[in-house]
């Protein structure tokens, strides 16, 4: 299926124009699924890249708004400049691996170098660019979608046949979306899968996110070199622009003349979550003052990558027709730390035949005055 990827087009989307970059051969494989709960929250997901294309939630006055960046046409996801990974599940390894290689059990594996000299988000055709098998699921407690994909041995350079399942579950009674990840492999391999939605709680395309008030449950973070590869240190955030232990506007310190912010062109860093390893706990909380929308994220993962849309520059126009301006969205990607296969002091990301991969992240929406 993967080698036919660029030949697929969505049944729910408009036909490709004659000059489009996508060749249209199939109208049945890629589909859009819509989950709606009793409170009116709506989540739209496509089996292309397991992408969340839309997430509609109320503001403090009950007005519904779409709070994730994205598109209405699959060809826009495929052809987007700078490949922003809007709403996708990324992997086999989300985030960066230094110089596109790692050594496991005495063997060195070479991966695609697709982010300067490093490997990013699973390679040239990662999980965000494949067509997943999809199965809607339903219960009294939630509306859901189960997506599965087999990443074959040496696909994008990774060892092992990895059978991955991602389940989205929208709670019927609360505006809560749970994302469960599960995987098995027949050979030891690194796995670090994450959800890459860009949020703007004002509404997608509605100005910047710099006035959003963010709290990250972390006393430490992983500083990086100029290539955004962790140095291996985990210093305190106290007294630095990376201190979000108490809620503050995203834009308060982002323009400070600090080396780490210059390396990332802003925030593009992993935070070490202050909770027991492997247990569900708070990762972050975001409040948007004008709408009153609140997003709280909990996870079993040990880290969260905070990215504040540094590479958005207005060239991309989303589903509402509005340009996505610089810092027009933020990501909070729950995950293990970047470059863990090359960092022995970091929590391991190696999955083996006798040790399955499991991870859960919950996105809970509410409002406050």
UniProtKB/TrEMBL annotation:
<dbReference type="GO" id="GO:0005737">
    <property type="term" value="C:cytoplasm"/>
</dbReference>
<feature type="signal peptide">
    <location>
        <begin position="1"/>
        <end position="20"/>
    </location>
</feature>
<keyword id="KW-0597">Phosphoprotein</keyword>
<feature type="binding site">
    <location>
        <position position="268"/>
    </location>
    <ligand>
        <name>beta-D-galactose</name>
    </ligand>
</feature>
<comment type="similarity">
    <text>Belongs to the aldose epimerase family.</text>
</comment>
<dbReference type="Pfam" id="PF01263">
    <property type="entry name" value="Aldose_epim"/>
</dbReference>
<feature type="active site" description="Proton acceptor">
    <location>
        <position position="333"/>
    </location>
</feature>
<feature type="active site" description="Proton donor">
    <location>
        <position position="196"/>
    </location>
</feature>
<dbReference type="InterPro" id="IPR014718">
    <property type="entry name" value="GH-type_carb-bd"/>
</dbReference>
<dbReference type="GO" id="GO:0030246">
    <property type="term" value="F:carbohydrate binding"/>
</dbReference>
<comment type="subunit">
    <text>Monomer.</text>
</comment>
<dbReference type="GO" id="GO:0033499">
    <property type="term" value="P:galactose catabolic process via UDP-galactose, Leloir pathway"/>
</dbReference>
<dbReference type="InterPro" id="IPR008183">
    <property type="entry name" value="Aldose_1/G6P_1-epimerase"/>
</dbReference>
<comment type="pathway">
    <text>Carbohydrate metabolism; hexose metabolism.</text>
</comment>
<protein>
    <recommendedName>
        <fullName>Aldose 1-epimerase</fullName>
        <ecNumber>5.1.3.3</ecNumber>
    </recommendedName>
</protein>
<feature type="binding site">
    <location>
        <begin position="95"/>
        <end position="96"/>
    </location>
    <ligand>
        <name>beta-D-galactose</name>
    </ligand>
</feature>
<dbReference type="GO" id="GO:0004034">
    <property type="term" value="F:aldose 1-epimerase activity"/>
</dbReference>
<keyword id="KW-0413">Isomerase</keyword>
<dbReference type="InterPro" id="IPR011013">
    <property type="entry name" value="Gal_mutarotase_sf_dom"/>
</dbReference>
<dbReference type="InterPro" id="IPR015443">
    <property type="entry name" value="Aldose_1-epimerase"/>
</dbReference>
<dbReference type="InterPro" id="IPR047215">
    <property type="entry name" value="Galactose_mutarotase-like"/>
</dbReference>
<feature type="binding site">
    <location>
        <begin position="196"/>
        <end position="198"/>
    </location>
    <ligand>
        <name>beta-D-galactose</name>
    </ligand>
</feature>
<keyword id="KW-0119">Carbohydrate metabolism</keyword>
<keyword id="KW-0732">Signal</keyword>
<dbReference type="GO" id="GO:0006006">
    <property type="term" value="P:glucose metabolic process"/>
</dbReference>
<keyword id="KW-0963">Cytoplasm</keyword>
């Amino acid at each position: 299926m993967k080698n036919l990827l660029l030949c697929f087009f969505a049944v729910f989307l408009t036909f490709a124009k004659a000059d489009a970059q996508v060749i249209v051969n199939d109208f049945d494989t890629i589909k859009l699924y819509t989950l709606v709960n009793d409170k009116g929250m709506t989540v739209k997901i496509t089996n292309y890249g397991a992408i969340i294309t839309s997430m509609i939630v109320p503001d403090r006055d009950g007005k519904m708004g779409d709070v994730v960046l994205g598109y209405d046409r699959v060809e826009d996801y495929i052809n987007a400049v700078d490949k922003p990974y809007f709403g996708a599940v990324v992997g086999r390894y989300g985030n960066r691996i230094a110089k596109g290689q790692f050594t496991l059990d005495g063997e060195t594996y070479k991966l695609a170098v697709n982010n300067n000299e490093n490997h990013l988000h699973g390679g040239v055709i990662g999980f965000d660019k494949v067509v997943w098998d999809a199965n809607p699921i339903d219960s009294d407690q939630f509306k859901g979608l189960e997506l599965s994909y087999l990443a074959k041995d040496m696909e994008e350079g990774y060892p092992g046949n990895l059978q991955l399942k991602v389940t989205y579950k929208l709670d019927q009674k609360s505006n809560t979306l749970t994302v469960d990840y599960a995987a098995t492999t027949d050979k030891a391999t690194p796995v670090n899968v994450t959800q890459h939605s860009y949020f703007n709680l004002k509404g997608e395309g509605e100005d910047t996110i710099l006035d959003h008030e963010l709290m990250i449950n972390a006393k430490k973070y992983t500083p990086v070199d100029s290539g955004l590869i962790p140095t291996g240190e985990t210093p305190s955030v106290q007294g630095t622009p990376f201190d979000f232990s108490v809620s503050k506007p995203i834009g308060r310190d982002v323009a400070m003349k600090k080396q780490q912010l210059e390396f990332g062109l802003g925030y593009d860093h992993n935070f070490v979550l202050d909770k027991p390893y492997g247990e569900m706990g708070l990762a972050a909380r975001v409040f948007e003052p004008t709408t009153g929308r609140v997003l709280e994220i909990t996870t079993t993962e040990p880290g969260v990558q905070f990215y504040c849309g540094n590479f958005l520059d207005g060239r991309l126009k989303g589903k509402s027709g509005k340009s996505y301006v610089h810092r027009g969205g933020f990501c909070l990607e729950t995950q293990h730390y970047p470059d863990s296969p090359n960092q022995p002091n970091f929590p391991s990301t190696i999955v083996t035949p006798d040790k399955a991969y499991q991870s859960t992240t919950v996105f809970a929406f509410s409002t406050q005055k």
